[in-house]
Amino acid sequence: MSSTEPLTAEESAAIRTRLDEVAERTAAAAKASGRSAEDVRILLATKTQPAERIRVAIEHGFSLIGENKVQELVAKADDLADLPHESHLIGPLQKNKVNHTLRHAQCIQSVDSLALAERIDNRLGVLDSTVDVFVQVNTSREDSKSGVAPEDAEALVAAVRDLDRLRLRGLMTIGLPGQTPEEIRPSYSDLRELRDRLIATGALPADATELSMGMSNDFELAIAEGATMVRIGSSVFGARPAP
User: Fold this and answer.
1) Is residue 241 one of the residues assigned to a domain?
2) N6-(pyridoxal phosphate)lysine-modified residues are where (predicted)?
3) By three-state DSSP, how is residue 128 classified?
4) Strand ranges for 74-226 from DSSP E
């Protein structure tokens, strides 16, 4: 759908309804974990979604947006520029796309190597700017997923912490796509335990407590394990079209 094809009233209403449903489920899960609804933020994963659909969400009060690909982040920026929102890059970042990312993203959640962190920091030095970051950890240990290995996370976190232009907010992971809570939960509990351990050792700053984890199919489990940010796509926008 191009930027010249407006949504129908029915399509817009359906997105708003699903947003409200996700917000209710998030609040209930947060309260069940002993926290308040405000302790968990909803980030809308907008991969392949046209700007028209994202605008409906922002106008409905959901202004935290996450893109998987730099080219989509860049392509949609102008169409969303008139609406106050916060853009995160949640997919892998190639070092040669750092410049484009820093023009449009307020946070990079996929820092998984010192080489990438240093490239970002160096470019920010030229721009005289800063950016928020998460360190991505591969808690599921799947070869297909990005992220630093859990046993190597402390060294990377400590190195990122020492880069002046990167504001370290916490850790991110992509959970194991299991079929049962018993399969899925360890990916999230391991990240929470890692965060707590790194704060205790001083590798992670005491205020870098955020945990970005959980998606449409498992976000309530992630919240139960301490997620402070969940990345929701299909529960709001529907299933992505097949390639």
Assistant:
1) no
2) 47
3) coil
4) 86-89, 107-111, 131-136, 166-172, 210-212
